[in-house]
Design a protein that fits this description.
The chain is mainly alpha-helical. 63% of the residues lie in helices and 4% in strands. It has 9 helices and 2 strands; from the N terminus they run αββαααααααα. It has a two-stranded antiparallel sheet. It is globular, with a radius of gyration of 17 Å. The N and C termini lie far apart (56 Å). The model has no long low-confidence stretch (mean pLDDT 93).
Length: 196
Amino acid sequence: MSRLDAQVEFLLTCDRLKAVTRTTLLHSGERAENSAEHSWHLALMAMTLGEYAPPGTNLNRVMELLVVHDLVEVYAGDVHFDQSEAGKEEQVQRETEAAARLFGQLPPDQCDTFRQAWQEFEARQSPEARFARALDALQPMLLTWGPGGVGSAAHPELTLGRLLALKRPALEDFPELWELSQQTAARAVKAGIMPE
């Protein structure tokens, strides 16, 4: 297979991300978003909210990480962030296998590039990965409970305390975004779309 043929095969496989349904509804509440829409929205968030990243953060790299981070869901599917520890371990295994399979479609140099970006996001070690993870934690909150949001029909048991406990590790190093997430959750409780 030629280099171009391999790249086209990869791109067509990645088109399947549009069919991976998430539990997060669109802000309008009309349907669940898909993982491709989620990734696009995160890249837009990085462009829009980049000023809240630590000085020196490479926003182009943040956008690369955000575009790549959920590609493995083509094979592994998506799971809700509030899952059991056993469920998280199973998802890590599925995603690791999916990364090998998906990125393995690419020519070796690009396989390494994509795999490294995916691993960087998962490891949360670089400033870029930490900021990308913060945006990934914030985005579903804004869609679900932001001004005009309709709440989560899929997870009505998710309380304010549980939500903030789950989101804190990704967001607390970014004061403005952490404050926004707390305000968003408090507003949702006041609006009656999230239990306290």
